[in-house]
């Protein structure tokens, strides 16, 4: 790196492919003090508020409802990987006051190349799934039940539009946009985690609490669901032939003759063909041939088996000589409070070489059936196996919903390019050299706030180096402490509640955002008038604030890029950066209205979340390159942080490859 000084200008420092940096003094870092804790709030709290959103409220419960707590170790890996990423993007900002996104454009082969690359990666963030899903509980509150008909789904779209447009209002006020977002997310964390903590403490059994907490550490284990699982009104039946797998799943209405929700899925290879409860696909065509016969068989079986309230069924056809059928009852909450298991087996039928045998106690079931039977009852329709061992034995991945699992991984934590905003907010907070650079002002109340067109770095010497190390410790506390803790807590609490109230409930379409509220209300009918609106409000509180963040994230990233790279933008005054910000925000608003019309909420969320893995994987390696080339040697990450960043990139790109292989 070379220094430049001119007779009529301040000292400059070469910064790669963009304008040279200014040179200043690294400010003193804040001293940690419990008494001054509120003043220590930084990007970690704001990003934690963002993190408690789709991953924790939609995909976490959706995955745990189907597979229990077994797959939560994937959330552990995701959150820990993102801690490395967040710290490293903030490292760059501490040094020069610029967001990491600007740093990407400083590297070879230059800004024009990276603009194309990151516009493609930005596709993962253009889907307004938070507004779409926040509309579901709001619609349910109006209707008194989860939306299901075409007319009711139109309400979801209408309210989705309203939430999406109203989400732009908080971005107009507050002096700096960061300040308003920080207040919003801090309030969200306190309210949401407070209510969820209360529910978990008083309504969730110790067994489910234990399953969730241990699930974060069950590394390498995956669940195998039984071929048929019925739990009260909820059902899943699977049948296979030489070429295809047929699945019928749904929830039968307690009052009506028809299912409340059902779908029939025909999977041939990696291709899926879905039909609704009426047996029609998206083109209103019914299944034909063998698929039609199986649809009718499974539909009738679901109708019969769900007529037994409070009963369960698990059927596992592990080969012609190892069939297992278990029937029993779902215990009451009073029984569980006294230590009874959720499922209590009453009849176990084994089908092996010696024919069919019947037992009435799990302890009486002999090998090779006994261990499987106990696992299916204890884990309510599934059993755990090692992922590596399963692949080695079968030569393929287990038949799980890998798309929704990948979405769960992608949004556990913050996810995707949204993580880069840790550096933007560190700049706007005035951390490190961000103190000299400024912030993006809001439209109203931000006239005295300005943003420099170029970053500002410092000389590494005996004064600045100790300060630098203290700043690094400060961001580690912010991310590995505050952010990671809130992410784990925000994932654990909704999953505990979902295990307690919606275990084995199928997830699809508009149901995801409101099914936890429905499950709790169904479990306490005497308190339904209180719990139903309370839980819908909670769901709305989780998702709606993140609708604000969706537009803010894209607008902020590309505002900084344009502000630092465009010659036209450099002619603007420091407080005129708002014009660029709000122009991008308006463009996102127009696109969002189109996306909300054509996609259902869960589709939007899954599409965005899966693509987030690609974006974060690529950004991890680019961040490593930036910090190894643009930072002075003394300030670069050590081998531990570099290894963690590489693992982050490999993990998220690997998950993306997994979806590609299993989906196509």
Q: End-to-end span in angstroms?
A: 47 Å
Shape: elongated
Q: Determine the structural class based on helices, strands and strand pairing.
A: alpha+beta
Poorly predicted regions: none
CATH class of the largest domain: Mainly Alpha
Largest sheet: spatial strand order: 9-8-7-6-5-10-11-12-13
Share in helix: 40-55%
Fold-level CATH name of the largest domain: Amino acid/polyamine transporter I
> What is the strand tally?
15
What is the overall number of helices?
Answer: 21
Q: How many structural domains can be distinguished in the coordinates?
A: 2
Largest sheet: 9 strands, antiparallel
The CATH architecture of the largest domain would be Up-down Bundle
**Percent of residues in beta strands?**
5-15%
Calculate the mean pLDDT score and round it: 85
Rg, rounded, reads 27 Å
Topology of this protein?
Layout: E1 3-6, E2 9-13, E3 21-24, H1 43-51, H2 54-67, H3 72-96, H4 100-106, H5 111-121, H6 129-143, H7 150-166, H8 177-203, H9 206-215, E4 221-225, E5 228-231, E6 234-240, E7 244-252, E8 259-268, E9 271-276, H10 289-305, E10 311-317, E11 323-330, H11 333-337, E12 343-352, E13 355-359, H12 370-378, E14 382-386, H13 387-394, H14 402-411, H15 421-429, E15 456-458, H16 464-501, H17 515-523, H18 528-565, H19 577-598, H20 601-629, H21 639-663
Parallel strand pairs: 3-15
Antiparallel strand pairs: 1-2, 2-3, 4-14, 5-6, 5-10, 6-7, 7-8, 8-9, 10-11, 11-12, 12-13
Helix pairs in contact: 1-8, 1-16, 2-14, 2-16, 3-15, 3-16, 3-20, 3-21, 6-7, 6-18, 6-20, 7-19, 8-16, 8-18, 9-16, 14-20, 14-21, 17-18, 18-19, 20-21
């Amino acid at each position: 790196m070379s220094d430049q000084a001119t007779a009529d200008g301040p000292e400059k420092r070469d910064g790669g492919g963009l304008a040279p940096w200014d040179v200043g003094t690294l400010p003193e870092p804040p001293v940690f003090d419990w008494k001054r804790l509120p003043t220590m709030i930084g990007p970690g709290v704001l990003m934690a508020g963002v993190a408690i959103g789709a991953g924790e409220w939609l995909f976490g419960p959706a995955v745990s409802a189907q597979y229990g707590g077994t797959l939560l170790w994937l959330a552990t890996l995701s959150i820990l990987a993102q801690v490395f990423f967040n710290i490293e993007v903030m490292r760059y900002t501490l040094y020069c006051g610029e967001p990491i996104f600007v740093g990407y454009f400083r590297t070879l082969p230059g800004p024009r190349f990276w603009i194309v690359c990151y516009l493609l990666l930005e596709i993962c963030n253009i889907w307004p799934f938070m507004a779409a899903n926040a509309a579901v509980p709001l619609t349910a509150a109006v209707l008194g039940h989860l939306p299901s008909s075409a007319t009711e789904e139109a309400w979801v779209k209408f309210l989705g539009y309203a939430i999406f447009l109203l989400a732009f209002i908080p971005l107009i006020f507050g002096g700096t946009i960061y300040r308003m977002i920080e207040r919003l997310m801090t309030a969200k964390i306190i309210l949401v985690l407070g209510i969820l903590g209360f529910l978990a403490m008083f309504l969730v059994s110790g067994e489910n609490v234990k399953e969730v907490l241990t699930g974060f550490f069950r590394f390498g284990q995956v669940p195998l669901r039984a071929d048929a699982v019925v739990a009260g009104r909820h059902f899943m039946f699977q049948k296979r032939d030489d070429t295809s797998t047929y699945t019928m799943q749904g929830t039968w209405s307690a009052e009506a003759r028809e299912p409340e929700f059902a779908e029939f899925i025909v999977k041939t290879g990696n291709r899926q063909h879905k039909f609704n409860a009426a047996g029609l696909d998206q083109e209103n065509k019914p299944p034909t041939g063998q698929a039609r016969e199986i649809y009718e068989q499974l539909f009738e079986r679901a109708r019969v088996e769900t007529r037994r309230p409070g009963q369960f069924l698990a059927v596992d056809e592990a080969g012609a000589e190892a069939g297992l059928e278990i029937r029993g009852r779902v215990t009451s909450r009073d029984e569980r409070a006294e230590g009874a298991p959720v499922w209590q087996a009453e009849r176990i039928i084994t089908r092996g070489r010696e024919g069919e045998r019947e037992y009435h106690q799990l302890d009486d079931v002999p090998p090779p059936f006994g261990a499987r039977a106990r696992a299916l009852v204890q884990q309510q329709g599934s059993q755990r196996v090692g992922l590596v061992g399963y692949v080695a034995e079968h030569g393929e991945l287990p038949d799980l919903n890998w798309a929704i699992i990948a979405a769960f991984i992608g949004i556990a934590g913050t996810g995707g390019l949204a993580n880069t905003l840790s550096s933007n907010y560190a700049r706007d907070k005035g951390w490190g050299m961000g103190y000299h650079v400024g912030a993006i002002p809001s439209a109203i109340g931000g006239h005295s706030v300005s943003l420099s067109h170029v970053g500002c770095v410092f000389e590494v010497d005996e004064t600045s180096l100790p300060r630098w190390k203290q700043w690094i410790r400060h961001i580690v506390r912010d991310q590995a402490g505050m952010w990671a803790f809130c992410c784990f807590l925000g994932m654990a609490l909704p999953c505990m509640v979902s295990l307690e109230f919606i275990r084995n409930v199928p997830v699809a379409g508009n149901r995801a955002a409101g099914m936890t509220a429905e499950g709790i209300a169904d479990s306490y009918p005497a308190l339904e008038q209180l719990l139903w609106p309370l839980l819908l409000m909670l769901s709305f509180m989780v998702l709606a604030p993140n609708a604000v963040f969706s537009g803010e994230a894209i607008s902020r990233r590309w505002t900084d890029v344009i502000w630092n790279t465009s010659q036209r933008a450099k002619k603007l005054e420091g407080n005129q950066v708002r014009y660029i910000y709000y122009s991008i925000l308006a463009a996102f608003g127009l696109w969002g209205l189109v996306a909300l019309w054509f996609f259902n909420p869960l589709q939007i969320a899954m599409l965005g979340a899966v693509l987030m893995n690609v974006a974060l994987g690529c950004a991890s390696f680019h961040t490593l390159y930036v910090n190894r080339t643009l930072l002075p040697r003394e300030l670069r990450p050590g081998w531990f942080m570099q290894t963690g960043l590489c693992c982050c990139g490999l993990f998220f790109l690997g998950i993306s490859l997994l979806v590609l292989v299993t989906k196509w």
